[in-house]
Amino acid sequence: MNLLVVGAGEMGRWFARTVAAGTPDPPAVAFTDTDPSVARDAAAELSRSTHASSDESSARAVPTDTEERFDVVVFAVPIPAVEAAVTAHADRADRALVDVSGVMGAAVDAMADAGPDLERVSLHPLFAASNAPGNVAVVADAPGPVTDEIRAALAEAGNDCFETTASEHDRAMETIQARVHAAVLAFGLAAEPVAEEFQTPVSAALFDVLETVTGNDPGVYADIQATFEGAESVATAARRLADADRGTFEDLYREAGNSATVPTDGEDR
């Protein structure tokens, strides 16, 4: 199997590294990126991680306008670029299209339009690459032996791959990403410095989460906020709390507690 990974950033590298390590016959990997130096760095990094010698590197960089063909084309691009990337590169795939962009409705539709006769799977690793392994959402729009092999490699690396639908995933991301990030960042904007001895377990945990969220690429978070609704509802909820009298506040407190209950298997998600 040979792969073309479109987008040589964090998730593209994670995907290539994980699949290369988890398949019995590691694939040949090519990276392409709008920044050629990033693609070259990704190829060199993967070759080092697989202990390939310089004359038998397991990965290489190719230009964005390459006319080569590959068994699988993988899209690991920012959310706003996924549809354009699929349109530009899907015709280089002979067997399968895969995306790890983080939005599923748009990606699934774009891949179905561009490769109706190909295997198609959308994946969303619900973690930063440095925190792998973890949960991976899977929409198997048109599965087959090639994408099954890829999913098996992810599972072999310790990831929990669970199937969902594009609509269920994107709806969940409105809370899991857009609302969570908005709430954490709003706290960071509102918070003032306090001495360590004043911290409570709750405040310390929230400051830790704030540090985690703000230690990444702000562009990624901007893309999430632009793609998934949710931030406005957080602002509305904060205003409800700020304006509440005692009785209303207690009602809102209980309402918030009910919202924190996570459905178990068999309940509506």
Architecture blueprint of SSEs:
Layout: E1 2-6, H1 10-22, E2 28-32, H2 36-49, E3 59-61, E4 70-75, H3 82-89, E5 93-99, H4 105-114, E6 119-125, E7 135-142, H5 145-156, E8 160-163, H6 166-190, H7 201-213, H8 218-227, H9 231-243, H10 246-259
Parallel strand pairs: 1-2, 1-4, 2-3, 4-5, 5-6, 7-8
Antiparallel strand pairs: 6-7
Provide structural commentary.
- Helix content is 49%, strand content 17%.
- The chain has 269 residues and is α/β, with parallel strands linked by helices.
- It has helices at residues 10-22, 36-49, 82-89, 105-114, 145-156, 166-190, 201-213, 218-227, 231-243, 246-259, and strands at 2-6, 28-32, 59-61, 70-75, 93-99, 119-125, 135-142, 160-163.
- Helix 2 links the parallel strand 2 and strand 3 (59-61).
The CATH architecture of the largest domain can be named as: 3-Layer(aba) Sandwich
Strand tally is: 8
Low-pLDDT stretches are 52-56, 264-269
Main sheet specs: 8 strands, mixed
Structurally, the number of domains stands at 2
Quick structural gist:
The protein has helices at residues 10-22, 36-49, 82-89, 105-114, 145-156, 166-190, 201-213, 218-227, 231-243, 246-259; strands spanning 2-6, 28-32, 59-61, 70-75, 93-99, 119-125, 135-142, 160-163.
What are the key terms here?
269 residues, alpha/beta, Rossmann fold, 2 domains, 8-stranded mixed β-sheet, 49% helix, disordered C terminus
